[in-house]
Design goal:
This protein is globular. The strands form six sheets. Strands 19-20-18-17-21-22-23 form a seven-stranded parallel beta sheet, sandwiched between helices. A four-stranded antiparallel beta sheet has the order 1-2-5-8, with no helix packed on it. A four-stranded parallel beta sheet has the order 13-12-14-15, with helices on one face. Helix 5 packs across helix 14 and helix 7 packs antiparallel against helix 8. The mean pLDDT is 94. It has 15 helices and 23 strands.
Length: 525
Amino acid sequence: MTRPPLTIRMHAQDNVAIVANDGGLPAGTVLPQGVPGADLALRDKVPQGHKVALADIPQGGVVRRYNVPIGYALKDIPAGSWVHERLLQMPSARALEGLPLATVKPPVLEPLTGYTFEGYRNADGSVGTRNILAITTTVQCVAGVVAQAVRRIKTELLPQYPHVDDVIGLEHTYGCGVAIDAPDAVIPIRTLQHISLNPNFGGEVMVVSLGCEKLQPDRLLPPGSFPIVDERDPALGPETVCLQADHHVGFMSMLDDIVQSAKPHLERLNARRRETIPASELVVGVQCGGSDAFSGVTANPAVGFCADLLVRAGATVMFSENTEVRDAVEQLTSRAATPAVAQAIVRELGWYDRYLDRGRVDRAANTTPGNKAGGLSNIAEKAMGSIIKSGTAPIAHVLAPGQKLRRDQRGLVYAATPASDFICGTLQLAAGMNLHVFTTGRGTPYGLAECPVVKVATRTDLARRWHDLMDINAGKIADGEATIEETGWELFRLLLDVASGRRKTWAEQWKLHNALVLFNPAPVT
């Protein structure tokens, strides 16, 4: 059955709408009530997700979506025309001075009580949604050895410890050949340190070092910086297998040492059991990747509604992606809970502006070919759809890259990270994320070994084609089969099930685990 023409207009003041039909609409298609009181015939073929002009837009005129300027017409655009990036001049970025600071006072959200999940309570009070042995590495040089050791541990030992979910090596590209004492080196170092202490690892700290690297184990994890769960003296620092140690004779002795060292950690993890935990102990990171024009229409608004539910339940929600919120900075600073929080947002975005300037790139570099193919003309338009997934709660806290949440930092948190999917995910893990939500319109097999990733499709076509990769189809919203609120509740309940281990995400089932990617703005030597 052929669907009638369907367009989506985000605000009554918008002069463009996006085409929702699969495959787009051909030229000549008549859109009912394209402009007030009149039908509108398409002058061009318009692909799905792309914009159509609802009225004549003169050269230099504002192109408005979400009731904000997303560009200025480079030439006259007649009503019914396809509006794409080649017809638009992108607006300049808003200056970081003179911004509204904590001026919006959102209505107080009614507390949401009685919701729980089955999780693992850690000695420091944090809670894990998984029970994983993570082997920290100090340098990329040991990654191959650790990968072999992990395979042996999974094959030889893990079947003996049925309550341990997984064994992973925390591989990365840092540790040597870098300016280890440069001021910005603190970012990758604290990122690695805090990932090692992620709640899903149960407080177990096991390190594999080469021996000659710049990032020595006692610099990565200084004594006293992490909980000691066994009987060792905390002054000894982390338990470390050093591959250059004299007692290692050959490759197999290195593997044997790592495998044997894993046994007591596995025994302690295996003794743990899930217990009923209030939903307030969830720390949920939200992110989008492979975005399209539907991201800000379906998936991200549903995630935003779910974010409000989580905050109402006392949980913590982190949103990120500096370049994808930069064009909505006024919305961020005005929603800040206090002027100090607003100033922290300005500080982090200002730092990132200067970082991009050093690399001689600007925010326009963010929008990818896939974003544009999906109907997003530029970062100004993309930002409006991206920020919606943060919901409506006040922004309570701000984290710099690699910083870890404190136990008293709850509610909605802006974790300042680059927009790159894996750098953002890595930094959210370091902040203490124990559950992850990832929306996508173009599709991506993104996944993390360290944390369950719930994937939300923006379009029914993607959910149908990638039926065994997407966990929720938010495209039903555009199809008129579900509301934003219904989909938000669906996601909220799924998160509780995934956090409890009652359901596995598709990424977990297929073990789609991408490598950690550190944000390292310090020089490489």
